Every structure is written in structure tokens, then in C-alpha cells.
TrEMBL record:
One of its GO terms (biological process) is nucleobase-containing compound metabolic process. CDD domains: WRN_exo. This is 3'-5' exonuclease domain-containing protein. Pfam families: DNA_pol_A_exo1. GO terms for cellular component: cytoplasm; nucleus. GO terms for molecular function: 3'-5' exonuclease activity; nucleic acid binding. The keyword Iron-sulfur does not apply. InterPro entries: 3'-5'_exonuclease_dom, 3-5_Exonuclease_domain, RNaseH-like_sf, RNaseH_sf. It comes from Sesamum radiatum (Black benniseed). Keywords: Hydrolase, Nuclease. Residues 57-209 form the 3'-5' exonuclease domain.
């Protein structure tokens, strides 16, 4: 899998815009800490997909600063929330936001939307515990794939395994990026690609598994 990140170098302090290119696919990726920019992304997404809002699939993932200590220190707060619908991804740097926009709360709480990911219930619980965000309707891709493909062993699969099994794609998830400083105000291109692709492949797997999408 060939991955390239193109920076649009937009002249704004509120956000950065990238294209994350995977083989022949381009995922427009918006990175922001700005509540109004988040609301704008949600509005645009609902307009573009208005014909399927009653059954919208959204890839969801979160990242946080990892602990390297063996002590019983509490986990760091979720630093980024990633959402993906089709070839559009949002990376919300929630840790650096002045507030959480009402539109995001409404979007996550909409029971007509299905938020998909690996371990997505755990991610939803983290969002609730750390930020008071309720994700109303989640579906774990592991159990969904196991049921649709009649392969019980997929219940213990990771996203890389599911991407290979369902999409025929070989994901690259470098450990040094997994364990990087997700609380940084400025994310590296490697972090942007990693965060984007986790949400994007979650969406694509959910779309492929869904017979009615």
C-alpha cells in the first residue's frame, strides 16, 4: 500500500487541510481544533449524503497520548477524534478546542447514524468519560464481520486483519506513530495519515459489510 500526504497549506490558523492518498484513493482530511470548523464539516457531510442520512455509516476512531510508565496513573484524555464518511475525514483535536460544538454532540447522538470501528464501544466510552460526548449507535466491525463472513475468529481481529479480510488491503500501522504524542498541537504528516486511515478503513469495512449501503 502506497501512502502519500499532500498539504494544501491553507492560510488559516483554525485548521489544516490535507489529501491522504492511498494507491488511487484520495481522502480529503481536515485537521482542526476549531469548533466552528467542526460544525462546518458536519453540515457539509450531511448535505452531501442527505439521501442516506437515515442509514449513514461513519468511521470513528480516537487517539490519546500513551502512557510509558508502569504506575497506575489514570489514562490521558482523548486528544483526537476522527470521523470519516466516504472520502472525507475529520480529525478534531478535541484536547486543544475551546469548547465542544453543539453540532458535534447532535451528530454523535443521532440514532440514525451508525458509528463503526474496532473496539468502537470502548472509544465511545472514552469520549463519554473524558468529554461527556454520547455516541448513540455503535457497531463493532469485528463482530459484524464475523457474522457476515461466518468466521468466528474475526471477533478477535484488529483493524489490519479486517482490512485484509474484508477489503483485500494491507494496512501499515507503524508502532512509532501509534505511540506518538497525539496531544501535540501540530500533528505530523505521519500522524495525519495514521489517524485518517484508521477512520477511513473503518468506514470502508462498514460500507462493504452493509448490504443496504
Amino acid at each position: 500500500m502506497k501512502i502519500c500526504v499532500r498539504d494544501h497549506k491553507v492560510p488559516f490558523k483554525t485548521h489544516k487541510l490535507y489529501d491522504v492518498i492511498v494507491d488511487d484513493e484520495e481522502i480529503e482530511t481536515l485537521v482542526t481544533h476549531d469548533p466552528a470548523t467542526v460544525s462546518g464539516w458536519i453540515d457539509n457531510t450531511e448535505i452531501l449524503h442527505q439521501c442516506r442520512l437515515h442509514r449513514l455509516i461513519v468511521g470513528l476512531d480516537v487517539e490519546w497520548r500513551p502512557h510509558f510508565s508502569s504506575s497506575n496513573c489514570p489514562a490521558h484524555h482523548v486528544a483526537t477524534l476522527q470521523l470519516c464518511v466516504a472520502e472525507s475525514c475529520l480529525i478534531f483535536q478535541i484536547l486543544h478546542a475551546s469548547k465542544i460544538p453543539r453540532r458535534l454532540k447532535e451528530f454523535l447522538a443521532d440514532p440514525d447514524y451508525t458509528f463503526v470501528g474496532v473496539g468502537v464501544k470502548h472509544d465511545a466510552r472514552r469520549l463519554w468519560n473524558d468529554w461527556g460526548l454520547q455516541v448513540s449507535n455503535t457497531r463493532d466491525l469485528r463482530y459484524w464481520a464475523a457474522k457476515e463472513l461466518n468466521e468466528k475468529e474475526l471477533r478477535g481481529a484488529g483493524l489490519k486483519d479486517l482490512a485484509r479480510e474484508v477489503l483485500g488491503e494491507d494496512m501499515n500501522k507503524p508502532l512509532n506513530v501509534t505511540l506518538s504524542r497525539w496531544d501535540n498541537r501540530l500533528l505530523s504528516k505521519c500522524q495525519v495519515a495514521y489517524a485518517c486511515l484508521d477512520a477511513y478503513f473503518s468506514f470502508e469495512i462498514g460500507r462493504r459489510l452493509s448490504a443496504w449501503y
